[in-house]
Amino acid sequence: MSTAGTMLRGWRTRRRRSQMDLALEANVSTRHLSFVETGKAHASRALLIDLATRLEVPLRERNALLLAAGYAPSYPESVLDDLSAVREALHHLVTGHEPYPALVVDRRGDVVLTNGAVTTLLAGLDPAFLAPPVNIYRLALHPGALAPRIRNRAQWSGHLLHRLDRLVDLTGDPRLVALRAEVGPWVPDDRTVPVLDRAAQLMLPLHLEHPELGELRFYSTITHFGAAFDVTLDELSIETFVPADAATREALGSAQPTAVPSSMPMP
């Protein structure tokens, strides 16, 4: 079992910070920080929280660090259904984005909430891929799921793997490490980026071939809760897709509502 010192040293190394640099920033001696990391000194709760904040340790991992040091966790982990005001806000965000797709996912990419436009995009997919928990990485990268519909598959799969790699580096979450290992073999070896037009150089589009609506082009944006002090909220992100051209706006604006799979988490 990892000690608080070894965990702290691991986060410092992951963030590529030297002991001297971190100690100066936290206003402690390098000697004391070294003793904390080696277990020769016991850090106070306040110092551990301060160091974890400076190292941008995610809230879930901050709780684990505190527990390893013998302290109670500082950050609650709520069930989203119990956070009525937050769920209502998320409801308005995703439904207000219709007729364009929007969804809420946790840090592992498991879908928490979607709007009806998402089900339109997924029409005709094997229901096995929509069984809970629906995971956006498995859904987008598996050759039996959405991947064959993605026209710029090499670009988009490279983008998703880059996102996963960043999350693994940011969080050190072993579940994300396992997910990265799982989806990696599904990605084509050739992920070279072709010459892009001016718009695509600024923002990577998602180019889909829909069986009923034809070609669809989107840009995506990802939003996180600012200053979250709850583990659940800290790990949520809202991904919205906006049309990249007039044809996509018209196709989705005139699309008939699609039956919602019972497994998809709707507002």
Automatic annotation (TrEMBL):
<dbReference type="InterPro" id="IPR001387">
    <property type="entry name" value="Cro/C1-type_HTH"/>
</dbReference>
<dbReference type="Pfam" id="PF17765">
    <property type="entry name" value="MLTR_LBD"/>
</dbReference>
<dbReference type="InterPro" id="IPR041413">
    <property type="entry name" value="MLTR_LBD"/>
</dbReference>
<feature type="domain" description="HTH cro/C1-type">
    <location>
        <begin position="8"/>
        <end position="62"/>
    </location>
</feature>
<protein>
    <submittedName>
        <fullName>Helix-turn-helix domain-containing protein</fullName>
    </submittedName>
</protein>
<dbReference type="InterPro" id="IPR010982">
    <property type="entry name" value="Lambda_DNA-bd_dom_sf"/>
</dbReference>
<dbReference type="Pfam" id="PF01381">
    <property type="entry name" value="HTH_3"/>
</dbReference>
